[in-house]
Design goal:
globular
Length: 242
């Protein structure tokens, strides 16, 4: 019947319109904000300035501003932004991880470990970076044995990812710099120098390199055992250093 056909066509048009609107809203939400794009490019000062962090600010704005502030060592500001984000979204694993890093750079190591534990409980996919951060945290906390054990869990896979990434991604700079500190403590000056160079090259605007260098622990007698352990771990052939 003509009337039925018109009704079916109208319903189908409405459904298609609803689907199109849903896709549009999803894509708009998934697309990074201007601050997010600047953050991805390593332009931390510009990202912090561009982020709209006033009352009612969304997750992307707060997160982008917080990570930018962290790289600029505006740590109190970064902590405040992340606390606001977590007040609205307490199960945000990435925000908990970042909050732990900010606490660590402020010297609040026990608090950092708690934030890392919370992030790990919520996001299994963050296991590798969290293990790296925990290893570095143990190192600056004066526990080289724990640092060694944690770093050994991920060293091979992490080095592969860092070599694949090649130092061109600004937000990977922190991984390079923390790995450099751990390799340096293990007595591996070659890999430490390579990772430190690429970390600084990936994010020249970041001030984290100076902070990590200042927090680096002096290798203890335990690092000799660590050197032996890491040498055994690297028995398989590796790619030549650039």
């Amino acid at each position: 019947m003509p009337g039925t056909d018109l009704l079916v066509a109208a319903v189908a048009s409405l459904l298609l319109a609803a689907v199109a609107l849903g896709v549009f809203l999803l894509l708009r939400r998934a697309a990074p904000s201007p601050a997010g794009r600047l953050l991805d490019a390593g332009r931390f000062a510009a990202a912090l300035e561009a982020a709209g962090t006033g009352e009612g600010a969304g997750r992307d704005e707060l997160y982008s501003a917080a990570v930018a502030a962290k790289h600029l060592l505006e740590l109190e500001r970064a902590a405040d932004l992340l606390d606001r984000l977590l007040a609205a979204e307490p199960d945000d694993g990435e925000a908990l991880l970042e909050r732990g890093l900010v606490a660590a750079y402020r010297g609040r190591l026990a608090a950092a470990e708690e934030y890392f534990r919370g992030a790990g409980a919520r996001r299994a996919d963050l296991a590798e970076p969290l293990t790296l951060h925990r290893a570095w945290l143990a190192l600056v906390g004066g526990d080289p044995d724990r640092a060694r054990r944690l770093f050994e869990e991920i060293e091979v896979s992490l080095e592969g990812k860092l070599r694949d990434e090649g130092g061109g991604e600004p937000l990977f700079a922190e991984w390079f710099l923390q790995a450099a500190a751990l390799w340096r403590a293990a007595g591996d000056a070659e890999r430490a120098g390579w990772a430190a160079r690429l970390g600084r090259r990936a994010a020249p605007e970041s001030r984290l390199a100076a902070r990590l260098a200042g927090q680096a622990a002096t290798p203890s007698a335990g690092s000799r055992e660590w050197r032996i352990s890491l040498a055994a771990l690297r028995a398989a052939p590796t790619m030549p250093l650039p």
